[in-house]
Design brief:
5-stranded mixed barrel; elongated; 28 helices; single chain
Length: 800
């Protein structure tokens, strides 16, 4: 409401007060019985109100003009719940029973709207519609509120007055309306008092219309008092919220101003420095006690001088500050002293790992050389083996045995060389490479850094990370390692790098050439049993919060889990199966807390389901030979079957998802036997008339490599001689067209695979004799191995 409207309302109120004595206001008996009707949709209008009303010029301008031309200037206002109809069409059935007769003052037309001051006169009800289109003219009656002199009415009147008094301090806006009311009416008149109190509230339209429809004074005052109490509660809550907000804002402003004043006072007294000076002093303090190369010291000093003249709000200031933050945080010249104690290192390795005796010996040899020389530096250890054999944990044990900080990150899937050598400072969001971040985190220049999954490095348009690693890992070059972000030379020659991989095939040859390879071939059942008892099972109990007395597992059950559910080379799947046993046991312990559970072999099928691995029966018969193969998951047995389909024509068919190299080995074996059948006491014309089918079972699994050459040749020879080979024997080796047996790789894995299948007699290439003799004694124990340099040696063992 504008100030002009407020002044005019006061003027109208004064006129109304004067007219009560002079009779200028229409007396009740002189109110017209026909009034024009005007709908309003904000809230109902009460007789005690004097308020501005705004309506659309169309379609109500004619109604206002006709009212203005009457002598009484009276109009009826009816509340419409919902949006106003644009065409002015009203449904009489949707209008409320009671409206308000008002007298209009000071009607003004502006911007498509008509505004006037409405002075409430009496309640009004429609008796008949005289016009059903705008302007609406209706016959009306004026319901009378009979006087009620009961004490109860006076009590409600006092309650309303007290409630209004309580509301006024909470919302000063109501004081102006109270002034207008007191100028026109007596507080002793309960009817306008209740209407005025209802008009003060912010209740919804239907609630206010209910008050307007109520003519009985006592009932009306009861309803109004309820609305007024609600209004007081809302106003009080709003006041509390406003006070809380103002208090918080005041506290923040006060704290801000005090801090700003404190800064100025401290600056005037020389007790504090600005942000730039504080940053420079912080960076200089970081460099105290560090030994920087001359080039690095000069570069950092130049950046500090540059920072001192830059504005703190400029982008260049942020870039320079970030650079100095990294450059000064590096541990320049700080070297952690090595603790090279072979006995202690042996204890740590034995504590953390069961089995792997050859790997432990190799690591101890490596540490012994460092102890003899006095320092361990310039070395890159590459741990190669199937998943789950403990490559990462061995790296941690090496760091602990040297008492050096350990930092690990995975390079698997890395395609951006900036991850290795950093981004250039010109790029937004530039950061140093992983090695700079590692040195900052560990705080020394000689940590043990593990690069996991180095065989899974990728390459993309963003560069080749494997090539970027050449400079990083090469002992002859990494003393001058250059990070693109810092653009400073870093000495990484004291860092011990430990890399892990599953295979060597995908590692670039120049990178592999810089590494000292240590193979982890997997575990036999006895080693897995020891690992499960000493490491995996106790760890699973600890994770579940169980005591050893609450849950036990027998050695037979552990061995059954190993053989039937986790026959892989590593122990990760074994750990998962043991975790499954613990979880299922915890469910039972929650149901029966005092139970002591002991897991036996008979319980495994119920807890773990049907075994994933079954005891494989070795295939026997004519044309069937058991070979040995190497995979990235460890060693495996590889049966080969050969049969003659018919003798109608000559042919040779291969199946079993064989790779190109394995197909070539089969072709070589077939050609060799075709040319030399007579020397092996077989029908030399056998293959001239036979269509031979050679199959390697598990056809869904891809197989490749030359090591099945003598196996395929032996199967074909057994078929040609129509004589089954000796049972309980497996072999591996590459064959040539002249029958020579060439060496193959993965001897350790293949021996482990044979022991796992209870095969204790092997045929290996003579050139692999040294590889076999280097195997640990527990792997060679109980094995009978025949070494062959020519296929004649193989045939002699197979067919006597």
């Amino acid at each position: 409401m504008s100030d002009q409207d407020t002044d005019y309302i006061e003027h109208v109120a004064e006129d109304a007060a004067e007219s009560r004595g002079t009779g200028l206001v229409l007396p009740d008996q002189n109110l017209p019985d026909k009034l024009y009707l005007l709908p309003i949709n904000n809230r109902p209008f009460f007789p005690a109100q004097v308020m501005p009303v705004v309506v659309n010029e169309s379609p109500w301008h004619e109604t206002i003009e006709r009212v203005a031309n009457t002598q009484h200037k009276a109009l009826s206002l009816f509340y419409v719940d919902g949006p106003m109809p644009a065409d002015g069409e009203l449904d009489p059935d949707h209008l409320p029973a009671t409206g308000c007769a008002v007298r209009i003052h000071h009607a003004v037309r502006e911007d498509g709207k008509i505004q006037f001051i409405a002075q409430g006169l009496r309640r009004v009800r429609i008796t008949q519609w005289l016009s059903h289109k705008p302007p609406y003219l209706v016959e009306v009656e004026y319901p009378h509120s009979p006087a009620d002199e009961r004490d109860e009415v006076r009590a409600y009147a006092m309650a309303l007055i007290n409630a209004i008094k309580e509301l006024l301090p909470l919302n000063p806006l109501y004081s102006e309306e109270l002034k207008n009311y007191l100028n026109r009416f007596s507080p002793n008149d309960p009817s306008p008092l209740s209407d005025f109190a209802a008009a003060l509230t912010s209740a919804k339209g239907p609630e206010l219309q209910d008050i307007l429809d109520t003519t009985g004074i006592l009932r009306r005052m009861e309803k109004v008092l309820v609305l007024l109490r609600k209004e007081i509660d809302v106003a009080r809550l709003q006041g509390e919220i406003t006070a809380e907000v103002n208090r918080n804002i005041g506290e923040h402003q006060r704290t801000f101003f005090l801090k700003e004043q404190l800064k100025i006072i401290q600056k005037e007294l020389g007790m504090s420095k600005d942000d730039r000076t504080a940053d420079i002093e912080q960076f200089r303090q970081r460099l105290e006690g560090k030994t920087l190369p001359d080039a690095a010291a000069q570069r950092i000093e130049e950046e500090l001088n540059k920072l001192s003249v830059l504005e703190t709000g400029s982008p260049e200031y942020a870039v320079t500050r970030n650079y100095l933050d990294w450059a000064t945080a590096l541990p320049w010249g700080i070297v952690h002293p090595d603790r090279i104690d072979l006995k202690r290192a042996r204890r740590i390795l034995d504590r953390d790992h069961d089995g792997l005796e050859d790997v432990k010996s190799r690591i101890l040899e490596f540490l012994a050389v460092g102890a003899f020389r006095g320092t361990i530096s310039g070395s890159i250890i590459l741990l190669v083996g199937p998943p789950g054999v403990g490559k990462t944990s061995i790296g941690r044990s090496i760091a602990e045995s040297l008492d050096r900080p350990f930092y690990r990150f995975s390079v698997g899937g890395m395609r951006d060389e900036a991850e290795i050598k950093g981004h250039r400072r010109t790029y937004i969001g530039a950061m140093p490479g992983k090695f700079v971040q590692a040195l900052k985190d560990v705080g020394v220049m000689n940590p043990v850094i593990m690069l996991d999954e180095i065989d899974k490095l990728g390459a993309s348009h963003q560069g080749d990370p494997a090539s970027a690693l050449l400079e990083t890992l090469d002992p002859e070059q990494n003393s001058q390692f250059l990070d693109h972000y810092l653009d400073l030379r870093l000495d990484l020659s004291n860092v011990l790098f430990v890399c892990t991989a599953n295979t060597l095939d995908s590692i670039p040859a120049p990178l592999l050439d810089r590494m000292d390879v240590i193979r982890l071939s997997g575990y036999i059942s006895e080693e897995k049993l020891a690992i499960a008892k000493h490491h995996l099972w106790p760890r699973q109990l600890e994770r579940a919060g169980l005591r050893k007395s609450q849950l036990r597992i027998s050695d037979k059950a552990l061995r059954e889990v190993i053989e039937g559910y986790a026959r892989e080379a590593g122990v990760r799947n074994l750990d998962k199966q043991l975790g499954k046993l613990v979880r299922k046991s915890v469910v039972k312990l929650l149901e029966e807390p005092d139970t002591r559970i002991s897991i036996k072999p008979a319980d495994l099928k119920r807890l773990l389901g049907t075994p994933a691995f079954r005891t494989e029966k070795q295939l026997k018969g004519t044309g069937i030979i058991t070979g040995l193969a190497w995979t990235s998951m460890g060693g495996a047995t590889l049966p080969v079957e050969a049969t003659r389909i018919h003798t109608l024509n000559r042919g040779f068919k291969l199946t079993g998802q064989l790779g190109d190299v394995m197909k070539e080995s089969a072709e070589i074996a077939y050609s060799y036997l075709c040319a030399n059948l007579a020397s092996y006491k077989a029908d030399r014309a056998f293959f001239d008339e036979a269509f031979v089918h050679l199959h390697v079972p598990e056809g869904a699994t891809p197989k490749d490599g030359p090591s099945a050459g003598i196996t395929i040749a032996s199967a074909l020879l057994s078929l040609a001689r129509q004589q089954p080979p000796r049972s309980g024997l497996a072999m591996t080796g590459e064959i040539t067209l002249t029958g020579h047996v060439l060496p193959v790789g993965g001897i350790r894995e293949k021996v482990i695979a044979a022991r796992r299948q209870s095969i204790h007699e092997l045929i290996l290439p003579e050139a692999n004799r040294g590889d076999y003799e280097e195997l640990p004694a527990y792997l060679r124990d109980g094995m009978t191995v025949h070494f062959a340099s020519h296929f004649r040696d193989v045939a002699k063992r197979l067919f006597d």
